[in-house]
Amino acid sequence: MINLTTKIILLIVPLLVASILVTDALLVDSRATDSHTVSTDTPVTDEVRVVSFSPEISEIIAYLGGIDSLAATDINSTYPDELKKLPKIADYYSVNQEALSALNFDHILLSRDFNALIISKLTKYQNKLHIYSITDGSNLLKVIEDLGKILHREKQASDIINDIQMKIQNLREEHANKPVIKTAIVIWDKPLLTAGGETFLNQAVKLCGGSNIFEKLTIKFPSVSAEKLIAGKPDVVISLIDDNQNLPSSLKNRTVVLTREQQDSLMKISPRSYETGIPAVCQAIDSARNLVHDKTQTAD
């Protein structure tokens, strides 16, 4: 059983090295289908079989009702539970080439962020590769649309996109006139890692009427000192780790620890993020807003 610490390390390390390694991998694999374009080299049939090496993409396929189209996945594709029953033939670092060769499939679906370390190992399948980048809500909607086309589930994709857009609009309207709450999101504590401005987590904070105190940092998950975190004077610290013993003691009474499912749904961007992760962020920010309001009332 992989413990939570190992899971978080496995999530963070590939994201941090992806920007360095993926360029070389894509140069080797320059004919792979990139972003949101469906390859024309693979004939379109009603019985589409795909392999997903990204937990985000696997989740989207499940939301589209396409689990039966999955021939295999990576070991991190475990939500929903039905995905656990599928053959697991890859992790962040390697692919079981023998198992992959034995499968009958039309497409291999990868994430630029999660799969940077294995893209170059799949050059023999370059005409079947689809490489996506899901870094924010806009990317997510485009990927859902494209996967809907690949799986011949355009109607389901359209319904999911409309639902997400409605959720986003509702969140914006709900928090438009509320006081802005200074927020920090901590995703790791050794070293102390937070979310910068170029992350989905930053978007979540904004949707909930918060202001990320590290938004101006362009690194996705910058390392900051405890002193810098304290100096930012956050009204709330949203923690994506279970053990917060290494967080500054002066901020512990302002820290909200998300559940493991909530953490997972924020680190793996999918429709579930808008059902579970972002509502949890909003709840944490709303609670902090109420505390700030109460303190203001008491002071008056």
From TrEMBL:
- What's the domain of life for this entry? Bacteria
Recorded hits in InterPro entries, A to Z, give: ABC_Transporter_SBP (IPR050902), ABC_transptr_periplasmic_BD (IPR002491), Vit_B12_bind_prot (IPR054828)
Q: Which residues form the Fe/B12 periplasmic-binding domain?
A: 49-289
Cited SUPFAM superfamilies? Helical backbone' metal receptor
The protein's UniProt keywords, in alphabetical order, are: Signal
List the Pfam families.
Peripla_BP_2
List, alphabetically, the NCBIfam families matched. Answer: TroA_like
Q: What protein name applies here?
A: ABC-type Fe3+-hydroxamate transport system, substrate-binding protein
Q: Which organism is it from?
A: Ruminobacter amylophilus
